[in-house]
Design a protein that fits this description.
By secondary structure, this protein is of the alpha/beta class. It has 17 helices and 19 strands. The N and C termini lie far apart (48 Å). Bound molecules: zinc ion. It comes from Sinocyclocheilus rhinocerous.
């Protein structure tokens, strides 16, 4: 008999509940309904860590006041007794982050379609910056003069910067990888630029991000053969160069990135090597690039099986609701993806039952909000009909939908409350039954979304 565990969230503060359900018979998933979920026990879990964390503040003054805190500390608040899901408080120098967390992607010091004030109002605790693009324009020297990316953006909460490695995939035709580093041809002026592990870290030191990513040798998850093994070993060697190059280990947390493609032996070898290094956290990289879901999940769970329990686990480039829920169950804490902002610009509003294509005629006279249960500013004020009309004459519709979509993703507890139970049950049903998932319809397009946004 197998029990399935559920971890649910509501409101914005830790209200964590475990729900155990009775064993699930293997049957046609189309016949499944909520009545099959038999809740047998509920456990309220602990409040935030006293003394060791602090709430996000809105002023830069508060940033300085707390910046002497330890650079990173992970406290596990609750763990699911059956799945690998867990709720944690990640204490960073700017404020505490409740995990699981979705981190919106700001490519060049801003999130497209949303202001910093609006992002704060949505209770976003951490967002991403892009080292490659910020290193190109406006450049690390200028940003350092503005007291780093926090000061440049006037963002008082946490920042994670990537290493520039992803551009090896997104700008493949403009890059060449050698042991020394990656040579890019600038899309702006055609000049060649060599990005080494040391230079990536130097730029990220100038940006002053709370979490920095190592430069890794990234290959698409659909690539097979010796190139995958070469990239894995090189990523380990580059990790050591990044660690040696970090001038601010007391203030900036460097995360390693597990590579190895879809080859379990290579990924395990990478895990064995990288976990020997004393880094503050680990990312799972090289996935979500169009591979089959079966392969994707196997690599995620293999990785979380061998990553240290006491350190944060960041699954890179994952942002679809189903993927978030499943990968939380597989033990991941942090996620990022450009999907919610990019899809908003095409008029697609995310809702618990899928998405609304607000450009379609059917919404022209629909006076309901995007989601009647959503508390975001867009849903509190505007109707689907209004947003539909705006698309004909004004870019404001994109901004309004971006706010809704970011709210939907950032307030991950909203999604969990509405979907986690059903989705995780579906996942277990399908994983352990003859009715296996085929590739998710979004699987192929995920990397395309990311590429279009970041490149
Ligand atoms: Zn909304």
């Amino acid at each position: 008999m197998i029990y399935v565990g559920f971890l649910c969230f509501w409101e914005t503060q830790p209200r964590v509940v475990f729900v155990l359900v009775h064993p699930v018979p293997q049957k046609d998933p189309t016949q499944m309904n909520n009545s099959q979920v038999n809740r047998t026990s509920l456990f309220k879990m602990a409040a935030p860590i006293p003394g060791s964390t602090h709430e996000c503040e809105g002023s830069m003054a508060s940033v300085k006041a707390v910046s002497s805190a330890a650079p990173l500390a992970l406290r596990i608040v609750a763990e699911c007794p059956v799945s690998k899901a867990r709720a944690c408080t990640l204490a960073l120098s700017h404020c505490a982050v409740s995990t699981p967390v979705f981190m919106p992607v700001g490519t060049q010091g801003t999130l497209k379609g949303i202001t910093i004030d609006q992002l704060e109002d949505l209770d976003c605790q951490i967002c991403l910056g892009n080292t490659y693009h910020l290193g190109m324009r406006p450049g690390p020297e200028l940003i350092e003069k503005a007291n780093g990316l926090h000061g440049f953006m006037k963002w008082s909460r946490n920042l994670l910067t990537d290493s520039g490695g992803f551009q090896m995939v997104s700008l493949l035709e403009l890059s060449e990888v050698t042991e020394e580093g990656v040579t890019f041809r600038s899309p702006y002026d055609g000049k060649e630029i060599l990005l080494t592990p040391e230079q990536s870290i130097a730029i990220q030191n100038s940006l002053g991000s709370d979490i920095m990513m190592q430069l890794d040798d990234v290959v698409s998850s659909t690539v097979k053969g010796p190139r995958v093994e070469e990239a894995m070993h090189r990523s380990v060697r580059w990790l050591d160069r990044c660690i040696a190059g970090n001038k601010n280990p007391d203030r900036q947390n460097l995360f390693a990135i597990i590579q190895g493609g879809l080859d379990a032996k290579l990924r395990k070898a990478c895990l064995d090597e990288m976990t020997k290094r004393d880094v503050p956290g680990f990312a799972i990289g090289g996935l979500s690039g169009g591979e089959q879901k079966d392969d994707f999940w196997k690599m995620v769970t293999l990785s979380t099986d061998h990553l240290p329990r006491e350190k944060p686990r960041y699954l890179m480039g994952v942002g679809y609701a189903l993927d978030l829920v499943v990968c939380v169950a597989l033990g991941c804490d942090m996620f990022d993806c450009v999907f919610p902002t990019r899809t908003a610009r095409f008029g697609s509003a995310l809702v618990p039952w899928g998405s609304l294509q607000l450009k379609q005629k059917q919404y022209a006279k629909d006076f309901k909000p995007i989601d009647p249960d959503c508390k975001c500013p867009t849903c509190r004020r505007h109707s689907r009909a209004y947003l539909h009309a705006l698309f004909k004459s004004d870019t404001a519709a994109m901004h309004h939908i971006t706010i809704h979509n970011i709210s939907y993703q950032v307030i991950i507890n909203y999604m969990f409350l509405n979907q986690y139970l059903v989705l995780l049950l579906s996942f277990h049903l399908l994983l352990f039954s003859p009715y296996r998932f085929s590739a998710h319809p979004h699987a192929v397009s995920a990397s395309e979304h990311h590429r279009a946004e970041v490149s």
